[in-house]
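step 4 of 6: structure.
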Amino acid sequence: MKRAHGFYSVPYVLWLALFVIAPLVLIVYQSFFNISGQFTFDNYKLYLSSGTYLRMTLNSVWYALLITALTLLISYPTAYWLSQTKHKQLWLLLIILPTWINLLLKAYAFIGIFSQGGSVNRFLQFFGFGAHQLLFTNTSFILVAAYIEIPFMILPIFNAIDELKPSLLNASKDLGATNWQTFSKVVFPLTLDGVKAGVQAVFIPSLSLFMLTRLIGGNKVITLGTAIEEHFLVTQNWGMGSTIGVVLIIAMIAIMFLTGERKKRGR
Amino acid sequence: MKRFRWQNIYLALVFLVLYIPIFYLIFYSFSQGHNMNHFSGFTWAHYQELFQDQRMIEIVLDTLLVALLSSLLATIIGLLGALVIHRVKKPMWKNTLLSLNNILMVSPDVIIGASFLIFFTFLGFKLGFGSVLLSHIAFSIPIVVLMVLPKLNEMNTSLVDAARDLGATQPQVFSRVVLPYIAPGIFAGFFMAFTYSLDDFAVTFFVTGNGFETLAVEIYARARQGISLEINALSALMFLFSLVLVAGYYVLNQYNSSKKGRKRRMEANHNR
Amino acid sequence: MAEPIITFQHVYKRYDDTVALGDIDFELEQGKFYTLLGPSGCGKTTILRILAGFTEASEGKVTFKGQQINRVPANQRQINTVFQDYALFPHLNVFDNVAFGLTLKRTPKKDIKRRVLEALKSVRLAGYEDREISELSGGQQQRVAIARAIVNEPQVLLLDEPLSALDAKLRTAMQVELRQLQRRLGITFLFVTHDQGEALAMSDEIFVMSDGKILQQGSPVDIYDEPINHFVADFIGESNIVKGRMVADYQVQFVGKQFECSDAGIPAHEPIEVVLRPEDLVLTDVAKGKLTVVVDTQVFRGNLYEILSHDADGNQWLIHAVHKAKVGQEVGIYFEPEDIHVMRFGESEEEFDARLEQYEGDD
């Protein structure tokens, strides 16, 4: 029995060692090497002393915050009202369905929608606002990112609301609370965990969505993810890329610490 | 009653926003023009173009192959992993294993991609089909574990005892009791792994090198060059494919939940 | 006496730092109905699990028909279990659940069918073979669990609180049915329960357990009438227990008075405890009573009046009376000398048995 135990655990343990632990160790290791392969602390020194990198990081965090806030603002009422509909599981499935469409295709759709002659501009022109440069702006980046992340925010909040026992709401009303009081004093506090899970599920990817900054943001916004991609695949400065990677990992840990355990990003 | 209507308008708007881009893409896939600005007459031309695009068809097949192989292997390894974690009894070890398991679930794609790229380069592993397949297996394993583990935990230990009591050997206990019991979890895990693989862009982008491409990487490359309605045609087909997949998964879920419903009824009887 | 089918010899079971079983020693004979009775956590289920082979004894010897079986795995023992939660396989229907063990043994299909149907018939579930487990009521699931165990023709059947999930009426019916089934099959049943009524109703022999030890073993009547200590007396049925002192053989003193009793072999002046069962106390006039008490509360229970009263010393007396009394009224209590049961502090079962033999031999 003991022997069989050892035998069947080999593939999984091998995976843990090779694809979880080793890559993490390697990215930290790599961050101490410069572009010509010499051991150095320069990457960190440069990161901390150069305004460019710090500004980029702050920018990235700021945009991630904006995206998360916008997503939350749209998602909470949606999840709340969704939970009150008939056939709510079916509606929820329809909310999740778009996440099965490849991210790239959705981004691609917005290239068309936001383009100079695209629908939004024609819509604006129709109302006499005139055509605007929509694509390759910060706003378009935030909007598209929020569009992509909305289902990932709705899902955990919906689940939290759905788990609420109806008797709690009845109890609250029975004790004299108005609808709004019931919401603010009972429903919202009890669904806060869902909100936290949603924030985690949205904030971290928002720091690292590099394809969107390229396709929609027109490289105006540089996120941590874009910077890493740039250093690894364009300038080939893996050391600096890894350093930014380590920063991103630290940011991720900080977010998880702030919002409690991250639930899995369910679909 | 009036408030209720406002809520529905809001929900309808959200649904509209979620689906407009998708239908926008599909709509223009039938347009005779060359951009997504004006619909200029119905045509199947972009679909014909797509089906004659030897390179695109090859990439689609490669993508499906990677998805199928990686999800199968990830399911096997993830199943073994769930069994390992389930077997561990000390809470500290169990939590450590679970945290390690979840690292790839919570890591941003760029980090996974970059660190795998370093890893493969470090080993001198040639980038291409092999590295993409290995990466997809790697990032799909934890979701399989997370799908199977609750089923294992939910299974009453007395079922295993009962099987042994009735004369089942260890392999028989596994094949006749445990496996049928956790099968829905395994299917769900496989399905999730499959969609993860189809969906992935960032990790593949990092570890694919020059010789091998998946659909997402190809779309990215073409989208950067501007609009081509052939991609619209492709996205329409992929949307259909997703619908079929989701329908399949929904059926599987229904099957699961009806099973759960039965279990609940059983518990209710039990408590009566 | 026939050779015992199962023996436990000085069996201990320890988990990291706790002792679940301490020096368990007993024998089971072929074809009898045994019950392990005790509060939850007393170790009765651990004995069952050791016997079934789900866990191993830390120390001591377990034998089956004279052969040591400590290390024989569960799937090779001629012992089957009915689980507390039934542990029916949810993915198999009734027939396949019952056939599970036979299928593993590669029994020919024809035999499997015959034996499964027979087993279902013996638990009065003929015609249910195609049902899903989820379609059955708790009582029916219970019977499937029994059929699944007995179809393998085990020498010993272990039952782990199998009736605890049933409602009171069904439970009583199942008690009778189980007892009949055991007589018909003629195999040994080892039944685990925390319900003393269940134990008294079904068993040939009862083992009363507490804190990982067997306190007393005996027939239901023995255990009820001659509890060895305070714990057993209290656990088996309701009882009035008061402190007293032995005066001489057949003479005991409690609540300040001296009474004739049927116990002997205890040194004079030794402090003891006295048990009087509430149903042995008869309400009478103060003049005719051996004790005088004042009625505090009275509850009608259908078949009797449950009367709580107190004597002049403040001792509480529980009386099960056929006729009612008046609250606040002073009444007399009468009882026979053999209704008094004397218990010594710290007397072991062996000492108790030895003393009983000694003075009963005197008669």
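step 5 of 6: annotate
 - Chains C and A do not touch (no CB pair under 8 Å).
 - Chain C has three domains: 6-225, 239-277+337-363, 282-334.
step 6 of 6: archive
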